[in-house]
Amino acid sequence: MQNHNRNNKILITGGAGFLGSHLTEKLLKEGNEVLVVDNFFTGTKQNLAHLLGNPHLEIMRHDVTFPLYVETNQIYNLACPASPVHYQYDPVQTTKTSVHGAINMLGLAKRTRARILQASTSEVYGDPEVHPQPEAYWGKVNPIGIRSCYDEGKRCAETLFFDYHRQHQLDIKVVRIFNTYGPRMHPNDGRVVSNFIVQALQGKDITIYGDGQQTRSFCYVDDLIDAMVKMMNSEDGFTGPVNIGNPGEFTMLQLAETILKLSGSKSKIIHKPLPSDDPKQRQPDIELAKEKLGWEPKVNLEDGLKETIAYFKKVVA
Ligand code: NAD
Ligand code: UDP
Ligand code: UDP
């Protein structure tokens, strides 16, 4: 594989979003040509503002549910709203983005013979009965619930990736991303880390859904991006899927208390109803990532939260 040089024309769909903007920054820093394709549904030009003067970056407004004809030799397919509030706003468009978006990007990869990586998700495991979740677990997903547009859309995208691989010999890579946080998360996107930090900084009540005993495992964005690029450049033939996340597992109550401590906030904790189909627990098994990518996360929750709180202080305080 060519990498880290100006002959590498890398397409990032969803490049103006939270993860996409960090990925764009890293790939430009490493000396690549980057084309960002985004419809700016949840992403913003502001996320890329610090990179706009870079002559090796091109940004195109485009919706991946429509065909795209460009030349490229690597594709990172990240386009898709990731927070429940955003992906449930227009659920039909969410499924279209995952499914039609995957078909178009796989068609593009087939024509250009580009290597293509799919940003899949721990949500393919649904509300898991196996804990922690290894890649071999098939998941427990409700096909008709309010989260299904996202979960089933991402599952179908994985199916398409593996069928293009088997049927058309495409060079595919699939990563299953677990909850990730850090600077440039959207302040109003409704995800738990951004919600709690914004509430703490503004002195508003911290809204725990349900009893707060449900768990998540939070990965700092720099660790996540590092793994994603390692996966893209991993040995030929390793398709994944591979879990990427930080196995440190916390209840939402513990997360709220940690954010209150680190921000010095006097906000009080209140409880709101638990949304339907909310998974009770989630923790990645990352043995495969360790073995195949030589990767494991380096940033612990407190250090990552300090960076994230510092970012949100500039944006909302
Ligand atoms: P995000 O919402 O910040 O970014 C998604 C980007 O995709 C946005 O810039 C948005 O405008 C763009 N987009 C949405 N629909 C599009 C369409 N039809 N055509 C073109 N662009 C479109 O979310 P994120 O956290 O950066 O997530 C990026 C990817 O990683 C998503 O595919 C998401 O499912 C996946 N992921 C993220 C997490 C996480 O914790 N952040 C976890 C699992 C998976
Ligand atoms: N496609 C695209 N860009 C390309 C090549 C294909 O967007 O450079 C789209 C094309 O519109 C098609 C989809 O990708 O709908 C799937 O392409 P494929 O070649 O697999 O299927 P076919 O064109 O044979 O239906
Ligand atoms: N959550 C919460 N308060 C909030 C936002 C979310 O208690 O203000 C809970 C939510 O019910 C879930 C967990 O935090 O149990 C993680 O939610 P998020 O939307 O960040 O991610 P996902 O559910 O997709 O993992």
Pick out its properties.
single chain, 317 residues, alpha/beta, Rossmann fold, seven-stranded parallel β-sheet, two-stranded parallel sheet, 13 strands, 37% helix, binds nicotinamide-adenine-dinucleotide, binds uridine-5'-diphosphate
Report on the structure:
37% of the residues lie in helices and 17% in strands. It is α/β, with parallel strands linked by helices. The chain has a domain at 9-181 and 220-247 and 283-298: 3-Layer(aba) Sandwich (Rossmann fold), CATH 3.40.50.720. The strands form four sheets. It has a seven-stranded parallel sheet, with helices on both faces. Strands 7-10 form a two-stranded parallel ribbon. Strands 8-13 form a two-stranded parallel ribbon. Strand 5 (115-121), helix 4 and strand 6 (172-177) form a beta-alpha-beta unit. Helix 1 crosses helix 6 (221-232) and helix 3 runs parallel beside helix 4. The longest helix has 22 residues, at 91-112. 47% of the residues are buried. The mean pLDDT is 96. One uridine-5'-diphosphate (UDP) binds next to helix 3. It is found in: Cytoplasm; Golgi apparatus, Golgi stack membrane. Keywords: Cytoplasm, Decarboxylase, Golgi apparatus, Lyase, Membrane, NAD, Signal-anchor, Transmembrane, Transmembrane helix. Its cofactor is NAD(+). This is UDP-glucuronate decarboxylase. It comes from Polynucleobacter arcticus.
